[in-house]
């Protein structure tokens, strides 16, 4: 058997027809590449979960803030800054080199679901939906973007009303819910889940609209997180 030898180094990838060089670097906190090289075999993809940030409120934490209910504190600091940068960077979302033709954007977690005050949740949901529509659906590249609408599940009448507005007026493809919703008493850290009986009017509404509900995860509610005791670092993304 012939002895193993090291493979020769790969030649640097060639620039695609549009002249861009790869890897493409963004001026972000970590300076990580968005992608390594163009792959013509992976064109035409549709990305259905592309998170975005907002300046309406801080969607990375509960509102009011509660310890352990946001993912960013679990991240290494530089990586966390990079995540926040990318979630707000519109230009970086035109992902020709990665083969993504269309992407559906949604507010990051915990988002609207982390707001305890139902009135405030309804107000912020409307503002975020209007903002996302303006940013992603009224621009030259609008054909590259779809939108998941936010709904304030803290008030189910408002949630049904906003779901209808999102679909019929803003053209959203459906609604996006980050797991459970914080509702009611801040001291008790109550959590409301989509399969509870009081959510039935919301489901009736979206069934009539004939649109999907995208159920996204979020960090386990404080009162239900015994599994993480002594291993709190496991609560966030690795």
Question: How would a textbook summarize the main sheet?
Answer: 5 strands, parallel
Helix content: 10-25%
Low-pLDDT runs: 1-26
Structural class: alpha/beta
Termini separation: 42 Å
Describe the structure.
- The chain is an alpha/beta fold and about 240 residues long.
- The chain is about 25% helix and about 15% strand.
- The protein contains four helices and seven strands; from the N terminus they run βαβαβαβββαβ.
- The protein has helices at about 75-85, 120-135, 155-170, 200-210; strands at about 45-50, 100-105, 145-150, 175-180, 180, 190, 215.
- The strands form two sheets. Strands 1-2-3-4-7 form a five-stranded parallel sheet.
- α3 links the parallel β3 (about 145-150) and β4.
- α2 packs parallel to α3 (about 155-170).
- It is globular.
- Residues about 1-25 have low confidence and may be disordered.
